[in-house]
Amino acid sequence: MIREHRSRSKLEAYYQKFTEDGILDPNVHPWVAESWERSQELGINRDTMKIERKMSKEEFLELQNKHRDAIDYLSKLSEGIREFFQEYNLSLLLVDADCTVLKSYSLPFYQMTPGEIEGTRVGVEEVGTSSICIAYEHQTPFWMFGPEMWVKECQLGDACSAPVKVNGEFHYIITLVSMEQIAMPQDAVISLLLTMRTALEQHLTESLRIKAEEAILDATPFAVYHVMPGGEVAYANQLGHTRLEGIGAKKGDGSRHTQNLNDVIMNYQHTPIYKGFRGVPSYNKEVTWITPAKTYEDITTVVPLERDEDQAVQSVVVVSMPIEDLRTLVAHAAGYTAKYSLNSMVGDGSTFLSVRNKAGRVAKNNHHVLIQGEAGTGKQRMAHGIHQASARAAGPLITLRCGDTTPELLEQELFGVMLNPEVSHQGRLELASGGTLFLDEIEKLPKNIALELAEALETGKACRVGENVERTIDVRIIAACDSDLKRLTERGLFARELYEIVSRSIVRVPALRSRREDIPELAQHIVKELAEQHQMEPKEILPATEKVLEDYDWPGNIKQLQSVLEYAFFNTPGKTIRPNDISLMGDVKPDNKWKEDKEVFVKAWQAAGGNVSRLANLLNVSRVTLYRYLKKYGLEKK
User: Fold this and answer.
1) In this protein, which residues make up the domain named Sigma-54 factor interaction (predicted)?
2) Domains, the chain, ordered by start
């Protein structure tokens, strides 16, 4: 607030009239009058400033470090106008939002050395009325004449204070104090103070924005660089610094020095960065980087930054991600993580408990794993549990069913394929790098592909179909097999080289009929999961129903039990599942048109586990009749 010049003698008279007679002259500025009354109520000494240091040296140093940005910026700003300060005997103060003096610049303040005033609080409670307390109270710039100061020894000169706000929030007060009764260009002093205030506010706002942007860049999974024409790295985010250290372009000792990329990247002139300085941008391009430390691949985007007037490239922004990191990111984004733990596998019977404990031990070693067991016994869930309990749990879990496609497509799915010189896709083996590849129905893997996989696992390197480029892989195989893989290998039907690799740790999952004691608990667990998944009321399985389930052989194992209970859960009225509600063929009933519909008959055949006698009982027909339909549908009887 710019105030017109006031007579010092009149102001001194107003001050004396109030302090000695308790009378406030109506010509006293209302803010000053209010502050005088407050100072008097507080009993602030009027003769000298009696300030006791409230912060230890260590506490004050910590406070200054917290506000180092503002302190250093104002220091640089005041250097250029030091002569002006000296000419008018001015002192500059930076005060925090708690009215504690953070820094005293230029000449002494209140005849004190900077060391005496710094670290002390100069609010109205300590020194009474001052321009600082008025600016603090009313959050606006304020010019105060010397005789308006509460402490007499401070009345020799005038003072002006202005609050500093960042994004609308009050942070500091900057103050200019005149030490002598000399004529000062009031407008110039106020303009100077407001200019310094605006500059500091803009600097702090910009610093806050830059910190936020740097935090965002450091949080991204990409390495970000700002590269100058000569190959110098002007900026790198946190991951970028790590990558630079990895290729030897930067020391890991905290030094900011970065070697010229042209000196570190051996194929620099063939990279998108070099082309970027010729005005050629690149977007999501697969690039090979050759350095003395290592050769690696990443996906790189390069954006040239041009001058408006002549379109010359001043610098480029580079965003890159190593392909192995991208694979992991994609795997997690696509949900390629373990959905089950070993503890989610229900069963406390001695047979299954020993298997689950062995799986837990196997998970901790680094060997590849072979899970064997009949179809439907829960091998896939076991694979998920082993992955989750392993040291690779943070990596992806990728699944490939070996019997789902042709050998040609299976090889491409497993190893990846080069479609053309510009486009090359990674396979499941690369996608699982750092994690686990679950090969279901591994017995259906053709021998030539199995031999290629065995070599890749032994060497830790693999090539995509159609390429000669070797890529490093780091993957653990968990294989599942419905039959005896060792016997298939001995008969020459499976590659011995791959069998010896995946069979170093073998987990055999028992058939459900071998662990009948677990069936009631499994049934309760399945029904509870169904209720939770579909947000329905849970249903009770009666003891008599459990007996029916225990007495059945379950040729389809847990998968068949799941199907039967799903049918009962959704088709049973009420809250209990009774014996009559159980259809061991699931949604296939004796009154279905199985005689005309092959699909219905096959479902019943599968439910009976391919056993003619069991199917005859389920459908309530003779074995002779069933033989006729088995021949009709081309099914093999057991």
Assistant:
1) 345-570
2) 8-211 (3.30.450.40), 221-326 (3.30.450.20), 335-510 (3.40.50.300), 513-581 (1.10.8.60), 598-633 (no CATH)
